[in-house]
Specification:
37% of the residues lie in helices and 18% in strands. The protein is an alpha/beta fold.
């Protein structure tokens, strides 16, 4: 008779998670075996406190539990933790049933779109159904097995509802397989009925001795590799688009070596920024709608686009108008992505595929004139970034670029290198565009952006998750007032946990990014800026963000200008507690350099002449799209 251990479902689940180990690769190439699950975020309620909560308490020394303030916030933090660890480690997240669970659905969608791992463990209603309907239970008049947790089905890679203890023997390994698979990676939801959490079972002892996780790096199939080599050798002016897959594969050295060996300029998507050091002579910077002039000029002239580890999102491709004239080669571990837009697919891990392809290309190089032009463009853009971020006028409100420059230069003020130590977190508004162009990342992972789902409110929680993953780095959260108001509770969590983050709030008094889009698309300014939204009998909005930060336990100040911001950033860097720095900015000024068309559907009929003029421009721009 095999050796067994009698435990509840919850006890077995957390013991299994605590036992998981992973071969973790650091940025510098060192490897070590560490716990795969870095901890669990939990907000307890009647659906999880007596089952999973009691079990987490038993293993708190091996699997730490962190108390959060909002379920979406804690799930966002867990996702950021995984992202900052290049998907090599995860956190689990547990909530009660009802609103606690559905608060995490947005986070599940964020992780699903961004191909990021997180283990969601929402409580569920009684499997026996004897007390139905319980508090917070969603009842369906036609399907008796439906619960609120079924909302997770379309936004997770794997969903299961554990209705018997022994199901966990299959569901847990399957969940970990999905979380660690380079192509399938994404959120997993194991819904846990509150009574099932407490059911006991005799578990095989060997279940709690899982093998060390080692990530697969699948190579390219020879026929596809041969076809890729043949296509690239036809190119005179190739361009490489580095996506998030380069970072998750930890292929930055392979990317650098490939670019150097073959003279190919590199441009970076939002997810791929930081794949190549900002000052590498062939790094043309950001591509697409939020791209640099150097990158977008290359995109307009290239003859082959080599897309590595990118989903080819519309912001990267200019809604598939920017380089629709060029041939497309897509190296991606996920066949779904590799086959997009009828591109030639090379299905492989980014690191393995780049090494194979480079070896097969031998001494082939892009045209020397193309490589030389790319170097000149890259150098000119580096100089222009310095100019944009440091030349601060004193007669007008600052805008995002000047705040970004202040953050960067505050490191130099302390004799530090911001390119290697400073990690910036952002997600929504105008800031992603400015940061994509202007942030300088000298180390992979120092640019942390959710611009897949672009979730307003991700920023503060994401900063906390990044700090948990990278405690040695200074984590800056750059966030607009609109996003900050959406979700800021995990600022208090960062103080409680002693995980310092520096939150820089750019207050432009409204949804400035969308107001610009609204007006530039021929619409009237409406329902975006706070001063325009006061009804009769209402009062102007007056929000003291510094006072709010102090009320959450952080140290906070509202600065008067960029010069004071820079001084306060020096103080904030030396502090040990989370910081909030607020500065008034304008949404009217943006960085005009670079950028390209982005498709936003416009009305075919409108009484506004401006709207009809914009619609005409829209129709003309669509002629450049890939069909």
């Amino acid at each position: 008779m095999s050796n067994t251990i009698r435990l509840t479902v919850s006890q077995a689940l957390v013991r299994y998670l605590a036992a998981l180990r992973v071969e973790f690769t650091h940025v510098d190439g060192r490897t070590e075996v560490v716990p795969y699950v870095g901890g669990a975020f939990a907000i307890f309620g009647h659906g999880n406190v007596t089952g999973l909560g009691e079990s987490l308490h038993q293993v708190r020394a091996q699997l730490p539990t962190y108390r959060a303030h909002n379920e979406q916030g804690m799930a966002n933090a867990a996702i950021a933790y995984a992202k900052a660890n290049f998907r090599q480690r995860i956190m689990a997240v547990t909530s009660s049933i009802g609103p606690g669970a559905t608060n995490m659905v947005t986070s599940a969608a964020l992780a699903h779109v961004g191909r990021l791992p997180v283990l969601l463990l929402p409580g569920d209603v009684f499997v026996t159904r004897l007390p139905d309907p319980v508090l917070q239970q969603v009842e369906d008049f036609e399907q008796g097995d439906i619960s609120a947790n079924d909302c997770f089905r379309p936004v997770t890679r794997y969903f299961d509802r554990i209705t018997r203890p022994e199901q966990l023997l299959v569901a847990l390994p399957r969940a970990i397989q999905v979380l660690t698979d380079p192509a399938q990676c994404g959120p997993v939801c194991l819904a846990l009925p509150q009574d099932v959490q407490t059911f006991a079972f005799d578990w095989p002892a060997e279940f709690f001795e899982p093998a060390v996780i080692r990530f697969r790096r699948p190579p390219a199939e020879q026929r596809e590799l041969d076809d890729a080599v043949a296509l690239l050798k036809t190119a005179r002016k190739p361009m490489l688009v580095a996506g998030g897959g380069v970072l998750y594969s930890q292929a930055w050295a392979a990317l650098r070596d490939f670019a150097d060996a073959h003279g190919i300029p590199v441009v970076e998507s939002q997810a791929g920024k930081g794949s190549l050091a900002w000052d590498h002579p062939l790094n043309l910077g950001a591509i697409g709608v939020t791209g640099s002039p150097a990158a977008n000029a290359a995109a307009a002239e290239c003859d082959v686009v080599f897309a590595v580890g990118t989903r080819l999102q519309d912001f990267t491709t200019g809604s598939h108008s920017l380089f629709s004239h060029a041939k497309l080669l897509s190296l991606n571990v996920q066949p779904f992505d590799a086959g997009k837009k009828r591109g030639q697919a090379l299905v492989a891990d980014a690191c393995a595929g780049l090494a194979q392809l480079s070896a097969a290309l031998g001494d082939w190089r892009a045209d020397a004139a193309w490589t030389d032009m790319s170097r000149a463009r890259a150098a000119a853009w580096v100089a222009r970034v310095t100019e944009l971020t440091l030349n601060v006028p004193t007669d007008t409100l600052p805008y995002d670029a000047e705040v970004i420059g202040a953050v960067r230069e505050s490191a130099a003020d302390m004799g530090l290198d911001s390119g290697t130590n400073d990690l910036v977190v952002c997600a929504a508004g105008t800031l992603p565009a400015e940061l994509h162009k202007l942030w300088r990342s000298g180390l992979p992972g120092n640019y942390h952006m959710d611009y897949a789902y672009s979730t307003m409110g991700y920023e503060v929680a994401g900063g906390l998750g990044a700090k948990l993953a990278r405690p040695e780095r200074e984590v800056f959260v750059l966030v607009g007032d609109g996003s900050y108001m959406m979700l800021n509770a995990e600022l208090a969590t960062s103080v409680m946990l002693g995980r310092k983050i520096i939150v820089v709030i750019l207050d432009n008094r409204g949804y400035g990014c969308i107001e610009r889009l609204q007006v530039n698309s021929g619409g009237a300014s409406f329902n975006n800026m706070l001063d325009d939204c006061i009804p009769e009998g209402g009062q102007p909005s007056s929000i003291d963000f510094a006072m709010h930060g102090r009320s959450m336990g952080a140290e906070a100040v509202h600065v008067q200008d960029v010069a004071e911001l820079r001084r306060e950033l020096v103080r904030a860097r030396a502090a040990t507690k989370s910081q909030v720095l607020v500065i008034d900015t304008t949404h009217r000024r943006t960085t005009d350099d670079g950028g390209t068309w982005w498709e936003v559907a416009l009305p075919e009929v409108s009484p506004r002449p401006d709207a009809m003029a914009a619609q005409a421009r829209y129709v003309e721009a669509k002629k450049k799209q890939f069909h």
